[in-house]
Write a structure and sequence with these properties.
heterotrimer, A alpha+beta, B mainly alpha, C mainly alpha, A: alpha+beta, Rossmann fold, OB fold (Dihydrolipoamide Acetyltransferase, E2P), 2 domains, six-stranded mixed sheet, five-stranded mixed β-barrel, C: mainly alpha, MetI-like fold, two-stranded antiparallel ribbon, 75% helix, 1% strand, globular
């Protein structure tokens, strides 16, 4: 049985324009599930619905077998970490973390012990007397985390907790966050728009778009087998072109384009005669100058290099082709190609996916 | 940019213009003559004693304080919740209520005083003291609302949501999280409102009667028939009092920010 | 908004309606009725009374002069204050606020001492051998008194406006070749026009509605709308007369606010474009 279950959940601020419509989701105990998607897709709204900050217009919310649909937000025993940390500015770090415990009338010795433990877990022992205004962003984030977990919540909700931090700090704290979550075994929902973060942290990912779920799966699955064009684009399939399907069998489609024909993977719903969009990652294409070097059975598109950008480990080429401009990333130790050179963009069938248009 | 001289000169002129009269009244209140003149001759504290002895001034003072305290507290009790609701929620009629809540600043106080006299006192027979308090409270509400709103806008709503997620009820959230963080704004509006009420003339002018007159009104009445330094002495005391209040609250609360 | 939250809104609204909106509406309405029927009579009486007309024009005249004087004195002074280092600036601002926090009777009284027959100015004149001049109960006295009362209201928005000018705007204009005068007209004025509008509005409407200063420094010989109102209401017990004055006073402030907005709006951009 799922630990957290959302059934037919609809949330909105105005009657006829719900932000989340008919959402169904089941999360197992101890899992960390990410809600991944662009701004406005409904991931934060769903999170707030679980927390109880907004009412469900329709549907139900079940946690550990009990119905929480109409339970007030302050009675749900759910820990929340906000994007802005939302620390109490007038209270010390100690009092911030102790806040929930004091409300629960935990006795003093027990309270001190638990606060000390929580601060230790996030690496902030010794910071008890500081005020939030005296802390750096990363430190505030950790206090927010300690405050949310010290109450031993049945569920932990994190609303883009790292997006206000710089890149290096984000990666550092990401690791720490996951460690704490695993150690406590607390079921968690993590909202983010950062694909990399979701891949690194989650047991499973829910990709959302315009109020509904596009795909639910493990990070590996979502990364390698995006089920819709939206998910593919979100997971880095930056290039696409149009084509028509000649034939499909066994998940492989034979696609016809004005520049040539070739095989691609086929997503669900692709059938013969369908108009499709074929998507592929910048790292998925090979650039070849001599026609003789074109690998067998690849979809090949002729083009010309527009721009060459050195990125360290890789070199990025902007290639102009009759099917569109493509972003191709090649290891920098390969023979460099010059701007205006003619090339062939070669796509192996496993590296590109066709989606119904 | 080289500091232009003209603005600085004007600044000096302005400051002298603003503050010299206070100095002059201070000096005049020590004068020996029965009738007010400047420069005064002699030195005496007699007028201070006189001012403090006058029954009408003492009674006026107590009434002014009483009205100011009650009106200010009422304005806070009414205004702070309204500010909170305006800051955190949307509701039907919100815009209209916001406009109504700021109107008392635009309407001439004299007009309000007349209206209250005609329709609260004369028409409904409401006694003077409650009418006075009601009138002052109405004048003060825009200030308590505006200053509290400014403080609330600096306190993000998710801090309250954090408290709620940790188990706090609405009331607990207000007293343990919201109030401590808007404390400065509330105190500033308290001081400002108190002073506005204490110094008010136009509304108190109409809502006055036998035995019920605030200090400024008493002073006006006295001045109709008398022109001696006791008013100067009283004015000096009041000015010193205001100076004290302004500097203390500026130190503690940075009251100048409230006027931005 | 949750149901219970109405309890936050209703008390304040109720008080405002009962003690403000209602009485004012009734007052306004009553000026159009005499003995139960709609009439313009009270207004025509107002217009035909020379005392009323004199008071009205005196009020507008004085308010305009005070506002102009406040701008002339206050604008450069506010500029100077905004250029002073923070530490002293705070002290100066507190000193500017101080008069606002002081009893208006006390403030106006000090001008009696300065302008009276045996006051500072006259004693100075006699000491120099000149004749003593009657300064009290003149329009000049009222102008000075009102200026003293209201100039802080011009200063505060202006100081705020000057402080809000981005740090590098003036050096940028200089680097582009602007002279002092050009900077003043093309940069400073447009950027502070908002504060100037607020200040002018506050000063003008303040002068139209002030009571203490006209009462003490103008007396019953030089009536302004406010003293006229009080005279009608308290001394003559002429309710309808007083009410008309009240409505005229309010209307004047509203018209003034609109006109000031318009006039100053022209200066928003030096070429008159918005």
């Amino acid at each position: 049985m799922a630990f957290l279950a959302l059934q037919d959940v609809t949330i909105g601020y105005q009657q006829h324009t719900p932000i989340v419509d008919g959402l169904n989701l089941a999360i197992d105990e101890g899992e960390l599930v990410s809600f991944l998607g662009p701004s406005g897709c409904g991931k934060t709204t769903t999170l707030r619905g679980i927390a109880g900050f907004v009412h469900l217009m329709r549907g139900s919310l079940t946690i550990a077998g009990s119905n929480y649909t109409t339970t007030p937000a302050n009675k749900r025993n759910i820990g929340v970490v906000f994007q802005s940390y939302a620390l109490f500015p007038h209270l010390s770090v100690f009092e911030n973390v102790a806040f929930g415990l004091r409300l629960r009338r935990v006795n003093n010795t027990e309270l001190r012990r638990r606060v000390a433990e929580a601060l230790d877990m996030v690496g902030l022992s010794g910071f008890e007397t500081r005020l939030p205004g005296q802390l750096s962003g990363g430190q505030q984030q950790r206090v927010a985390m300690a405050r949310a977990v010290v109450i031993e919540p049945q569920l932990l909700l994190l609303d883009e907790p790292l997006s206000n931090l710089d890149a290096k700090l984000r990666i550092e704290l990401r690791v720490q966050l996951r460690r704490v979550q695993k150690r406590l075994g607390v079921t968690s929902v993590y909202v983010t728009h950062d694909q990399e973060e979701a891949l690194a942290l989650s047991d499973r990912i829910v990709v959302m778009n315009a109020g509904s779920i596009e795909q639910l799966g493990t990070p590996e699955h979502v990364y390698q087998q995006p089920e819709t064009l939206f998910v593919a684009q979100f997971m880095g399939f930056a290039n696409q072109f149009a084509g028509t399907v000649v034939d499909v069998s066994d998940g492989i489609a034979y696609v016809d384009t004005p520049q040539g024909r070739g095989h691609t993977r086929a997503s669900r719903g692709v059938c013969a005669g369908a108009e499709v969009v074929v998507a592929f990652r910048p790292t998925a294409a090979e650039l070849v100058t001599a026609p003789a070097d074109v690998p067998d059975s690849t979809l090949t598109i002729p083009g010309q290099i527009l721009l060459r950008t050195f990125q360290g480990e890789d070199v990025n080429y902007l290639v102009k082709t009759p099917l569109g401009e493509f972003d191709v990333s090649v290891a920098s130790n390969r023979t460099p190609l010059t701007e205006h050179a003619d090339v062939m963009v070669c796509l192996a069938k496993e590296r590109c996916i066709a989606y119904v248009h | 940019m080289k500091e232009a001289r003209f603005p600085r000169v004007m600044l000096v002129v302005l400051m002298v213009f603003l503050l010299a009269p206070f100095l002059i009244i201070l000096i005049a209140s020590f004068g020996d003559n029965a009738s007010l003149r400047f420069p005064p001759q002699g030195f005496t504290l007699q007028w201070f004693r006189d001012a403090l002895d006058q029954r009408m001034f003492v009674r006026g003072f107590y009434l002014s304080v009483q009205v100011a305290v009650v009106s200010t507290l009422l304005a806070l009790l009414l205004g702070v919740p309204l500010a909170y609701a305006t800051s955190r929620y949307n509701f039907t009629g919100k815009r209209l209520i916001q406009v109504v809540a700021t109107l008392p600043v635009i309407v001439p106080e004299l007009v309000l005083g007349l209206a209250l006299l005609r329709y609260l006192i004369v028409a409904t027979n409401l006694p003077l003291r409650p009418s006075l308090i009601l009138g002052h409270t109405t004048l003060l509400i825009p200030y308590t609302v505006r200053i509290t709103l400014a403080s609330l806008s600096n306190l993000p709503y998710d801090i309250e949501q954090a408290a709620i997620s940790l188990g706090a009820t609405r009331l607990e959230t207000f007293f343990k999280v919201v109030l401590p963080n808007i404390r400065d704004g509330v105190l500033t509006s308290f001081v400002l409102a108190f002073i506005l009420s204490f110094n008010n003339v136009p509304v108190s002018l109409f809502l006055t009667g036998i035995g019920v007159a605030t200090l400024p009104i008493q002073m006006l009445l006295y001045m109709e028939y008398n022109f001696d330094p006791s008013i100067a002495a009283l004015s000096t005391l009041l000015i010193l009092f205001s100076t004290l209040v302004v500097f203390i609250t500026e130190r503690l609360l940075g009251i100048s920010r409230a006027f931005k | 908004m949750p149901r219970w939250a109405w309890s936050l809104v209703i008390p304040a609204t109720a008080v405002l309606v009962l003690a403000f909106v209602l009485p004012l509406s009734l007052l306004f309405a009553s000026s159009f009725f005499a003995e139960g029927s709609f009439t313009w009579a009270s207004y025509t009486d107002f217009l035909s009374s020379s005392a009323s007309r004199r008071a009205y024009f005196r009020t507008v005249r004085i308010a305009t002069l005070v506002t102009l004087a406040a701008i002339a004195l206050g604008y450069p002074a506010a500029y100077a204050i905004s250029r002073i280092t923070m530490r002293w600036r705070v002290v100066l601002i507190a000193l500017v606020i101080l008069p606002l926090m002081t009893n208006p009777v006390a403030r106006t009284f000090s001008w009696l001492v300065i302008l009276g027959r045996e006051g500072l100015i006259n004693n100075l004149l006699t000491a120099l051998g000149a004749q003593s001049v009657r300064l009290l109960y003149t329009e000049g006295a009222m102008i000075v008194g009102l200026l003293h009362l209201f100039i802080p209201l011009m200063m505060l928005p202006l100081i705020s406006a000057f402080e809000n000018i981005p740090q590098d705007v003036v050096p940028a204009a200089q680097s582009l070749g602007a002279s002092q005068a050009q900077i003043f007209v093309r940069v400073l004025i447009p950027l502070t026009i908002e504060g100037l509008t607020i200040g002018a509005t506050l000063v003008f409407t303040g002068c139209v509605t002030a009571y203490v200063t006209p009462a003490i420094l103008g007396g019953s010989r030089r009536l302004m709308l406010s003293t006229l109102l009080h005279q009608r209401a308290s001394t003559m017990l002429d309710w309808s007369g007083a009410t008309v004055v009240a409505v005229v006073m309010f209307a004047t402030t509203l018209v003034a606010i609109t006109i000031i907005r318009r006039v100053f709006g022209v200066f928003r951009s030096p070429l008159g474009l918005s």
